[in-house]
């Protein structure tokens, strides 16, 4: 289970992540569902999850937030546009496997320490 | 033995006889003339449908048709004999012609047209042969090594050609007759392949029951042309199809499906022939239903494959990995199994400090290996199951690669010694476990 939080104001940049999410949705529908949340309409969680970036992807499993070690320093979310579909699917699968085992923190298959960009 | 040789010589001489009548007897025979008369009479009378009620075998027409089938086969053989005769005579004049024109009737026609003419530009072969072959024939004729025939030989050759053509015409008549009666004789077969092809099939097989006894693969090949004309490519030759090639069903299938259609046709038409030979279905409905089946099958083959649906990924870890078992896997796993030495090294005796590779508690610990009270005097590295294989490979690598080893060296000299390690050799040595 995961959710994305998007601001509509910077649509052009966000569409990259939206594109990836929509193309992946059918493929991973057996174990993950994608929710798109507009943070200007639903601002209730902005402070709680620190949602300030153009696009943010967070993962939840049975109402528990799952952290991912991406190498970026911020384990709570992916706050850049991940362009590669297969990478994204890999991350979702890793999160699923770890979460089912009961882990609260999973290690992403790929390291994004020097590579993440807005 | 000698009699056989004499017999053979006689046969060869028979072929050289000047008189065609000694070789080809069919046309003069009584049987031939009888049947031809009946056929002509029947052709003029038209088909008589009132005979349906009678049992087939009693019907005189049926008997006539059976005779016609046998006769057509005989006529074919006769034509071959006459063709040989013509060929032998005409060899003196134009030897290359026989390899250019294979079909006996075409050959006879060409011989008749050319006659004794040496210059082929004066001879018009239009309509007798395809234009490509006419060209080849003209070119070869200009360089031929033949000489004009003497008058009487020429006359005999022309006579033989006439005979061949007459036989061919007779055969055509017989086939036409059979074809017109086809829907009466074999309604199911003609419902599938059409009466012309059915008549040809029956004629070549030598009768309806003969056709019914053939397996379908033979039926497929009835009437198949084998030889390829000189110089023409075999790339376009349709392989392994006979008279069935002329059926409407075959012609209307797209080329990539033709082989499969041919096999299907052959199978169903054999079934229909069997039904007909036992008169199981005089109305022909079985044949029509076969035809429908064939059409449906060919339609189905031409359907496009179902569109590929993008499959969603399965839930991770939901399908347990298919683990294999068995001897092979066990042997494979042995290579990575924990050895006895390592097991001993992993354990420790209570109250007894273990020895280590660097001494004093530094380095790798040896656990129970080499300890006095461990109950084992020595640890034998006796895992011969694995070590034997490894040793053999090692041996082959180091000793087998040099080709200079003479055949007299025995492998016994290189057997690795069974290692038993004493405590002293141990300290400081690498634990190769």
Automatic annotation (TrEMBL), chain A:
Gene Ontology, cellular component aspect: U4/U6 x U5 tri-snRNP complex
UniProt main location, coarse: nucleus
Any one of the GO BP annotations: mRNA splicing, via spliceosome
InterPro entries: Dim1, Thioredoxin-like_sf
Subcellular localization: Nucleus
Gene3D superfamilies: Glutaredoxin (3.40.30.10)
Source superkingdom: Eukaryota
SUPFAM superfamilies in alphabetical order: Thioredoxin-like
Keywords: mRNA processing, mRNA splicing, Nucleus
PANTHER family assigned: THIOREDOXIN-LIKE PROTEIN 4A (PTHR12052:SF5), THIOREDOXIN-LIKE PROTEN 4A, 4B (PTHR12052)
Entry similarity comment: Belongs to the DIM1 family.
Protein name: Thioredoxin-like protein YLS8
Species lineage: Eukaryota, Viridiplantae, Streptophyta, Embryophyta, Tracheophyta
From TrEMBL, chain B:
Superkingdom per UniProt: Eukaryota
Alphabetic keyword roster: mRNA processing, mRNA splicing, Nucleus, Ribonucleoprotein, RNA-binding, Spliceosome
Protein name per UniProt: Nop domain-containing protein
TM spans (from-to): none
Homology family: Belongs to the PRP31 family.
InterPro entries the UniProt entry points to: Nop_C, Nop_dom, Nop_dom_sf, NOSIC, Prp31, Prp31_C
Naturally occurring in which organism (per UniProt): Citrus sinensis (Sweet orange)
Listed GO CC annotations: spliceosomal complex; U4/U6 x U5 tri-snRNP complex
Domain Nop per the UniProt entry, residue ranges: 185-303
